[in-house]
Every structure is written in C-alpha cells, then in structure tokens.
Amino acid sequence: NIFWTGDLAPALFLKEIYVQPAFRGQGLGRSLMASLARVTLQRQWRRIVWTVDHDNPTAARFYETLPGAALLGKRFYGITEDDLEDVAGRI
Q1: DSSP E strands: which ranges in 1-91?
Q2: pLDDT band at 1 (very low <50, low <70, confident <90, very high)
Q3: Which of 10, 14, 53, 74 could make a disulfide contact with 45, Cβ separation 3.0–4.6 Å?
Q4: Of 59, 65, 64, 72, which is closest to residue 17 (Cα–Cα)?
Q5: Is the pTM higher than 0.70?
C-alpha cells in the first residue's frame, strides 16, 4: 500500500508479477490482475500502480491491453545497496 501523491489516496503498488513463459497466453496474467483489482476494491483503495522495465516490451504490451491501464507520467528511481552509504554521507 502506498499513497499516490496526486490525491494522497491509498493505492496498491505492484512490485513484481511474473508468469513463466510456458504458461503465458493462458489468461493467468489477467487472472492475477483481476485478483489484485478485487483486493484493491475490497480495501477501498483508489488505484493499482506498477512499473515495467524498459527492456520488457512483452510485459508493456500485456499491460496496455488492460482496461484503463495508462502510463502515468512518472519516472521511478532507486538507490542500490552499493550506493546507500555514499548517498547517506553526502546528504
């Protein structure tokens, strides 16, 4: 659960979802997303948000087929373990 900065409403942040290649095309991804949508509705959260790796066009194409799925104009950044001490010392 995160709070979306646009309206501070709670949202489900999907960190990782993966369907093994042998099982793709059978509706499992849609079933997983439908289950997550039901959880989101049950908890009265306002949206589901997620990221897609730039080098994963297959996943991007799948997400683009979901009703209402859209790019939200956000960039996601991260600081890796190797750099945490460096950043901590500079701020």
Answers
A1: 2-3, 10-14, 47-50
A2: low
A3: 10
A4: 59
A5: yes
